[in-house]
Amino acid sequence: MSEDETNVIIEAGAGVVWDELVQFCVDKNYGGIENLSIIPGSVGAAPIQNIGAYGQELKDTFLELKGIFTETGEEKIFKKSDCEFSYRSSIFKTEVANKFVITSLKLKLNKNPQIITPFKQLEEELNKQGINDLTLKDVRNTIIKIRNKKLPDPKEIGNAGSFFKNPIIAKEKYLKLKNSYPDMISYPVNGEHIKIAAGWLIEKCGWKGKRIGNVGTYKDHALVIVNYGDASGDEIFDFEGHIKHAVELKFGIRLENEVNIIS
Q1: How much is the pTM?
Q2: Start-end ranges of CATH 3.30.465.10 in the chain?
């Protein structure tokens, strides 16, 4: 770990539980990853899909990572510019997928953090608490409360979190859809593109809480596919195909998987 007056650089091993790292940083008042609280998984998995939540993404604080190519044993350091980070993707999910093992990563965090609460649900929950001077701990605890309320615990019911990416569409197409569906949940990306909440699309197609055999969407969050019993990979694959078809038929939007499917 190194630091100056404004920033601190943290290095964490790939096997560290991600949320334990978040907890450590919040306790130290190091800002930049507090909105990524209780995302399941390890530190080494975080860069693969550039994890993100509530207005923060890993790439925002990412500095570099170390790892090993599995075929040659060659060690390599990937700087941020090498990683090809994008929405829920990176070079580790594409070009070097299954060819490179991440061993550690470095993050550059802020010792004088700015509190980021851009999402309506988070803002509303914080306002309910009537806290005047928000801290990182306030944000983390509130996000944990929200996520525990709407997302299933993978220790209790099998799931991989958000199964689909929030699709990004052209602003022109968005405006046409918004005219027909005024309650559409969306977020601006830039002047030409809008991100649509995939969970909203799925729910509007009647798939929230729907179950076929041992597979279904979670009752409180349509974006999460859950395994209610001994569902096979083929059953889950068929189920997600039905959801994609329904959304494309109704909205003309093709959902993309956020999870990796290994055949």
Answers
A1: 0.80
A2: 2-114
